Amino acid sequence: MLQGSGFYPTLKSQDILDVMRQMEIPIVDEDLEKPTPQRVQIWYEAFLYILKGISLEQLGDDIELLDHTDYPESHSDDIFLLSFYHNMSTLLRQVGVDDFSLRDMLKPEPARVRRILSGVCNFAMFRDDRMPVLEKYTVQADQQAERLEAMQQELDQVNAHIATIKQQREQEQPRVNSLQTEN
After folding, report:
1. What DSSP state is assigned to residue 53?
2. pTM for the whole thing?
3. What's the CA gap between 92 and 97, in Å, rounded?
4. Any idea which fold 4-130 has?
5. Widest CA span of the chain, in angstroms?
6. Cβ-contact 19, 121 below 8 angstroms
7. What single DSSP character describes residue 62?
8. DSSP 66
9. Mean pLDDT, the chain, as a whole number?
10. Cα-based distances in Å from 144 to 3, 109, 149, 156, 169
11. Distance (Å, rounded) from C-alpha 51 to C-alpha 153?
């Protein structure tokens, strides 16, 4: 690993390639040496989907600004780019890359691309390391939720049974009163 960037280390090229391939994101050595806007967009799309569950279709659906413009067809690409940038910028801030800009998408520079990819790859490795623990607690939480639901159903049944008994008691109360007065 090379020098640090922010609170994560800048990874060696081979480490970046390995992590991205594990994430099933297409990349070759040359992509890191000479990144193109098209390649980085493919990677960023994959990051949004893998790490946040946001697809391009969802980004397109979220574009509400087109409803407020006179010529939506001429602005749709720009608005989509800004929406994509906003979502990617949010993701990168969450993984520790605080200085992402539109330039990183439109005119990617090798050193910055490597730093950005290092941030995302470090986060992905951290997440993968913690996933078994998270899954364990998720399973436990699911089991507790099922147990709570079963107990709630049992409580509802007991309350229904109590209500039935109270109703029977109210119906039988006049007879009990008459028998008590006879004795």
Report:
1. -
2. 0.63
3. 5
4. Actin-binding Protein, T-fimbrin; domain 1 (1.10.418)
5. 104
6. yes
7. T
8. G
9. 85
10. 45, 49, 8, 18, 37
11. 37
